Amino acid sequence: MSSTTSHSTTANGNGVAKCPFTEGMLKKGAGTGTSNHDWWPNQLKLNILRQNSSLSNPMGEQFNYSEEFKKLDLAAVKNDIYELMTTSQDWWPADYGHYGPFFIRMAWHSAG
Q: How far is it, in rounded angstroms, from Cα 112 to Cα 82?
């Protein structure tokens, strides 16, 4: 005496087992925390900025960085940087006559 019973795991009989309490939807587990999307659901999609194309190169195809660098007068560049760092402005006075500590402080804060 053999009996065969058909057991369907879902109402429509497709054979896929689903949890009867959550209607088969996955829920977040405890301790998963909040994601960036939870805090800012309407955030800008910035992946458009990561496109690398020859059209987005502002220097063009013929630009050779090493050749252009060789054309620089490095002594003049160093003098310009020294003048920038040591010339205190009235609208933002330099600490002890030099902006070096300020730049280091800003780099420290921007690093986290």
A: 27
Residue 4 or 27, more confident: 27
CA distances from 40 to 28, 31, 45 (A): 18, 20, 11
CA distances from 2 to 7, 9, 107 (A): 16, 22, 80
Tell me phi and psi for residue 82, to 5 degrees. Answer: -60, -45
What are the residue numbers of the active site?
109
Q: Rounded to an integer, what distance in angstroms lies between the CA atom of residue 52 and that of residue 58?
A: 12
Helix boundaries (H) for 1-112: 36-39, 65-70, 74-86, 100-110
pTM here?
0.45
